[in-house]
Design brief:
There is one protein chain. The chain has 443 residues and is an alpha/beta fold. The chain has helices spanning 16-23, 43-60, 76-90, 144-154, 183-190, 214-223, 226-233, 300-310, 336-342, 356-367, 384-392, 408-421, and strands at residues 32-37, 67-73, 106-108, 114-119, 130-136, 159-162, 165-168, 171-176, 199-204, 264-270, 276-284, 287-297, 315-320, 346-347, 376-378. It has 2 domains: 3-227, P-loop containing nucleotide triphosphate hydrolases (Rossmann fold, 3-Layer(aba) Sandwich), CATH 3.40.50; 264-421, 2-Layer Sandwich (Nucleotidyltransferase, domain 5). It contains 12 helices and 15 strands. The strands form 3 sheets. It has a 7-stranded mixed sheet, sandwiched between helices. Helix 1 packs parallel to helix 2 and helix 11 packs across helix 12 (408-421). The longest helix has 18 residues, at 43-60.
Length: 443
């Protein structure tokens, strides 16, 4: 390795938890690292150390200068404010080929490699080069499309040799504080034991970072609501404000129930061409357990075929979208509900759908009522899409359930049986009111 890459005085010092994340870098089974950490954990100091190491390894392993080293954040303004000054501190003048480019926020090394600070707000403009190493800061706030459409492909072509072994593919470290159950949660779970073989994830609280005294944590506890504190300081994935099914808790509403041979199946169904979905429930006493799901089937005949193939011997009750009695998915004389009845299913549906608010309230009440009782449970291994949709569907700007993010169809399917079997409106018997005796005030 060239002499100019010898670490200068003032090299970044890491706390034990930061060092643990760092030490997993460039391992084959940790190509994709995710660090979910509380505020003030020291993620930026870790990023400085990571960028310095990537600069040294790019020269040592003879990585092509076409494969760059990037620090990224949700916006370019944010990336520059947070890291540009720190990057210039981390990469000393003795490593550089010239002065940093203050406009483009780039540093060219004597080895010819380029280190760049970028924003992911205009991610289409980033296409072109390959990537040897990438840091994504505040990952929960970044656009998933930036990763899927641009950054991930840019990591795919990098080639280099380590100890005589050819390796293909750049590495990434995604860091940040969680924000609900979005893509940050998905990639964090990829790195947990037993999941993806080339992923590794870490979770540390603000206190574990070693940069905030415990007294400051106590002050924050006094001033913040529990959910916000858990998210910001304990790096906990919390349902954020605006989530419709806010009573759903992946742990507390977890189920291990599965379909048994003699079970009657209660199947909620939503009608959408190419996007048909269904959730399968079994009933255990006064509790309901989601135990299977059907996702993105083409139409009602395809759904009927799939259900019959998977459950040929079970008694089946279907709780569909009431509009299916008018909608014709195939032929001119068969409505969706007619198709279900002709298939031999028992169909339970009112003449009109319940009010959206009533359906939501029924479901939230089953997930957890004001007494803390939970009667609706989800087997997340069997119903991963339904669980994700419960966690992520929010209200739009008009106060209606959002239908743009794609979390609505499965939730509609899963809530039709609940609203039918456990309606929020309670029928009351008429109350007999005895007439009040007339009082003669003059007697």
């Amino acid at each position: 390795m060239s002499q100019f890459f010898n670490p200068p005085d003032g090299a970044v010092k890491l706390t034990p938890k930061q060092a643990n994340i760092y030490l997993w870098g460039w391992q084959k089974n940790a190509r994709f690292r995710d660090a979910v950490c509380g505020r003030r954990f020291g993620k930026t100091f870790l990023a400085k150390a990571e960028m310095r190491r990537a600069a040294r390894l790019a020269a040592k392993w003879n990585v092509s200068v076409e494969d760059e080293i990037w620090y990224s954040a949700p916006t370019f303004k944010q990336a520059k404010r947070v890291f540009w000054k720190r990057l210039k501190q981390a990469i000393p003048p003795s490593w550089r080929a010239g002065k940093p480019n203050e406009t483009e926020c780039t540093i060219t090394l004597k080895s010819g490699h380029v280190i760049r600070v970028v924003g992911l707000d205009n991610y289409d403009d980033l296409r072109g080069s390959g990537l040897f190493f990438l840091i994504i800061d505040e990952w929960a706030d970044c656009k998933w499309a930036a990763w899927e459409e641009v950054l991930r492909p840019m990591l795919s072509t990098c080639k280099y040799i380590v100890n005589g072994e050819q390796r293909v593919g750049g590495h990434v470290l995604r860091i940040g504080t969680p924000k609900g159950f979005n893509h940050c949660y998905d990639t964090f779970m990829d790195g947990q034991p037993g999941h993806e073989p080339d992923c590794r994830s870490f979770s540390y609280t603000s206190l574990q970072g070693g940069n905030i005294p415990e007294s400051e944590i106590i002050v924050a506890k006094r001033k913040m609501d529990p959910k916000t504190f858990s998210q910001e300081y304990e790096a906990s994935f919390e349902s954020y404000q605006g989530v419709i099914y806010y009573c759903y808790n992946r742990v507390l509403n977890a189920s291990t129930e599965t379909v048994q041979p003699n079970d009657t199946l209660h199947i909620g169904m939503d009608f959408n061409v190419t996007k048909m979905s269904a959730v399968v429930y079994v009933r255990r006493g006064d509790t309901m357990h989601a135990v299977d799901e059907f996702v993105d089937l083409f139409d009602t005949p395809a759904m009927i075929e799939a259900i019959k193939e998977r459950y040929p011997k079970h008694s089946i009750g279907v709780y569909p979208d009431a509009s299916g009695d008018n909608r014709k998915s195939v032929g001119a004389s068969y409505t969706d509900i007619s198709l279900l009845k002709n298939a031999g299913f028992n169909v339970f549906v009112n003449t009109t759908n319940p009010a959206v608010k009533d359906r939501i309230n029924s479901t939230n009440g089953m997930l957890c009522n004001t007494l803390g009782s939970r009667r609706l449970f989800v087997n997340t291994d069997k119903c991963p899409r339904f669980a994700k949709c419960l966690e992520r569907q929010i209200y739009d700007d008009h106060g209606q359930p959002d239908k743009k993010a794609g979390f609505d169809h499965m939730n509609d399917s899963g809530t039709y049986p609940i609203a039918y079997l456990f309606p929020i409106k309670i029928k009351q018997d008429p109350i007999e009111i005895n007439p009040i005796p007339t009082i003669n005030r003059w007697n």
